[in-house]
Amino acid sequence: MTVPIDRRYGPTHEWYLLEDDLLVLGVTEQGQALLGDVVFAQLPDVGSHVQRGQACATLESVKAASDVICPVDGVVIAVNSALSDSPELINDDPFDTGWILHIHPSGSPDEWMSPEEYLAQAE
């Protein structure tokens, strides 16, 4: 299982990458594998406010629908519009072209797992 060391992770299989004052959010390799083939991504509007611990997107697969949980309070700055036509990017490349949201966070994040902690809980 791939777990990039430049990111932090959540207990519901999201990854978080801080880039300057933005947070990039996606689903881990294990998360997309648990979902199965993603066939639809319901994304919020740019400018939407998101809340820590709440759903900020929904991914639908051939198996089920699953919420993507937001790790911070903030405002959605960008969504991956490529997922509208190609939701399979989440399966094909979850750590790069399969990103989901860019969020401008308010406040500082807490309770994120390191790559090592995520690997330990994922086993």
UniProtKB/TrEMBL annotation:
Source domain of life: Bacteria
Cofactor note: Binds 1 lipoyl cofactor covalently.
Pfam families recorded: GCV_H (PF01597)
Keyword presence, Hydrolase: no
Keyword entries, A-Z: Lipoyl
GO cellular component: cytosol; glycine cleavage complex
GO aspect biological process, one term: glycine decarboxylation via glycine cleavage system
Required cofactor names: (R)-lipoate
Record-annotated Lipoyl-binding domain positions: 22-104
Modified residues (N6-lipoyllysine): K63
UniProt family annotation: Belongs to the GcvH family.
HAMAP family in the cross-refs: GcvH (MF_00272)
Assembly with partners or alone: The glycine cleavage system is composed of four proteins: P, T, L and H.
NCBIfam families, A to Z: gcvH, PRK01202.1
Function statement: The glycine cleavage system catalyzes the degradation of glycine. The H protein shuttles the methylamine group of glycine from the P protein to the T protein.
Name assigned to this protein: Glycine cleavage system H protein
Gene name of the encoded protein: gcvH
